[in-house]
């Protein structure tokens, strides 16, 4: 059988949304391969949410008693499960921890790994991972020659689907390696904007490299707050890659597709990869100091100027209008 094992991250009594997407995707792919989708949860509280993954297609969920949120213990736990089962692939929903665990697991097992994957298909009884390359202008297809193939998706690459069903829960013991105990988790960070629903927003204030730095998004946050109601802040692939804003807010070919009533682009050049994610917006307003920026070609209103001066004035004008 060609079973697929999924690393599922959980926090405060809930499984991470990207992990639910990965479990859903694994269930679909495993079904086409004639195998099963299994998942592994690690750390305190894992047993409380393990059974819920059955609704997303997992047939079995392993609960490992090891420190959560760290790559070393997760690699030890997953390697133990993989060595004891009939597995052909491992799937991660993405995220920094997923990248770290996936890379470490590949090194441990001598397995091939594909990162930043946006789609997976079954071809000839094998999984083929699709990864954007050359600035997302082309797609490469990746097959695996190793006994186990490791696939790490981009955030939001895999759709969450509830297929119903129950999952068998199995507790597993973990023999931690010496290096797994070298790190401890002191605090857990939160991504700014990670919970914002940009796909359902009526007004989106999107920022690009023209903001200059991560702190530049404060101007976007303030403008979105001034609009109030169902408003949110979004970002381009370039600034997400730079670490200025979380992946959850990324718009474009490899991010989310949006269609708000008003899309205000601040410092965004308007590359084709970004355009495909927002071109259905009802009204597009662009602010850019470069009069030749491509985004002006498909904007309803274009403003050539310094957004560091324009955005604060626009924020104050919105506040004044709304009283």
UniProtKB/TrEMBL annotation:
FAD binds at residues 209, 236-237, 250-254, 267-274, 288. Gene3D superfamilies: HUPs, TPP-binding domain. It holds the Pfam family ETF. InterPro entries: DHS-like_NAD/FAD-binding_dom, ETF_a/b_N, ETF_a/FixB, ETF_asu_C, ETF_asu_C_CS, Rossmann-like_a/b/a_fold. Its cofactor is FAD. One of its GO terms (biological process) is fatty acid beta-oxidation using acyl-CoA dehydrogenase. The electron transfer flavoprotein serves as a specific electron acceptor for other dehydrogenases. It transfers the electrons to the main respiratory chain via ETF-ubiquinone oxidoreductase (ETF dehydrogenase). PANTHER family: ELECTRON TRANSFER FLAVOPROTEIN ALPHA, ELECTRON TRANSFER FLAVOPROTEIN SUBUNIT ALPHA, MITOCHONDRIAL. Belongs to the ETF alpha-subunit/FixB family. This is Electron transfer flavoprotein subunit alpha/FixB family protein.
